[in-house]
Amino acid sequence: MAKKDFARAKTAWAAVLAAAWLLSWLPAGPAVAQSVRIKDITDVEGVRDNQLVGYGLVVGLAGTGDRLRTAIFTRQSLIGMLERLGVNTRDNEARLDTRNVAAVMVTANLPAFARPGSRIDIAVSALGDATNLQGGTLVVTPLLGADGEVYAVAQGAVATGAVAARGAAGSIQRGVPTSARIASGAIVEREIPYSLAGRPSIRLSLRNPDLTTARRVAAAINQSTGATTAIATDPRTVALAMGGRDPVGFLAQIEQLRVEPDQVARVVIEEASGTIVMGANVRVSTVAIAQGNLTIRITETPQVSQPSPLSGGETREVPRTSIEVDDQSERRVGLLRGGVSLQELVRGLNALGVGPRDLITILQSVKAAGALQAEMELR
């Protein structure tokens, strides 16, 4: 091959590599919305958890329980429990003093279709001045529902998952030692009756209410069944006509169908932690943004003036003051064109060098100017 041909081929190959490299850095086309299962965005109406609560005692603590002299409810509960077990302590109630017992609240969620004999997890939280529940044992505690009936009974060794140690001159604590959990710590004694069989219709409840999503769910179900089986009655509810179908099999079939959920353009701001979450549909109209603060920093570094030996002078402190002014003049006004996307908005604000705290103020100002085409939620 001639030298000229070789040089041309080399140049062409280099151009191809350069073009491929440039294409790899070009922004991709609009992202395709991902479809999700109906199972992941809806719940069957009526199939839900029920909250349970109870009051009990944790015993066996290593001196980290409640002070019986100040925690009156712990003292009364301990006396009542011992009397039920045949131990009379009222004659010597004044001498009853221990730090190995703590009064606690026990909470749990009773899942749908839980049958008697099944086990559920429970959470245990101290009520009094106990400092650590680690190593304790929860004694039999009835768990009540909203109707006052007992639906489960809890008992077992608690586990805090926290570390707490204290010495004469220091202490360390990781986690919350006054809150604990007991895996499978309660036995269900009564079930909440609910049956899917024999119902003429069943309603699906969307976890994120939206008219478009509800309509898409109904359309996907009707397309799968080949009939008008589902109707979106409101932004949260899709009604299903059973028509004598097996409810379990029918629900298992439709929950695997996939739809593309829609979402509202929303900006969620939590000022306490400086957290900002913006949805993909957030758009901004044409707006100019400038951000900057005047910072004056004064630093005092006094120095000691020491006279020469035998000079008769005195040692004095000489003040030295350094003043710095930062007007952030390098910051410039940023212009965001109308209809920019979330990615362009974040890129433009980051170019101004703003942090999360300043970004919250900017977004609030942009919303006040009517340029933020999204719903803003402050928490």
TrEMBL record:
Q: What cellular component GO annotations does this protein have?
A: bacterial-type flagellum basal body, distal rod, P ring; outer membrane-bounded periplasmic space
Q: Which InterPro entries match?
A: Flag_FlgI (IPR001782)
GO molecular function terms noted in the UniProt entry: structural molecule activity
Subcellular location per the Swiss-Prot or TrEMBL entry:
Bacterial flagellum basal body
Where does the protein principally reside? other
* Keywords attached to this entry: Bacterial flagellum, Cell projection, Cilium, Flagellum, Periplasm, Signal
Q: Which residues form the signal peptide?
A: 1-33
Biological processes per GO annotation: bacterial-type flagellum-dependent cell motility
Q: Quaternary state and partners of this protein? A: The basal body constitutes a major portion of the flagellar organelle and consists of four rings (L,P,S, and M) mounted on a central rod.
Q: What does this protein do?
A: Assembles around the rod to form the L-ring and probably protects the motor/basal body from shearing forces during rotation.
Family to which the UniProt record says this protein belongs: Belongs to the FlgI family.
HAMAP family on file: FlgI
Protein name stated in the entry: Flagellar P-ring protein
State the taxonomy lineage.
Bacteria, Pseudomonadati, Pseudomonadota, Alphaproteobacteria, Acetobacterales
Q: What is the gene called?
A: flgI
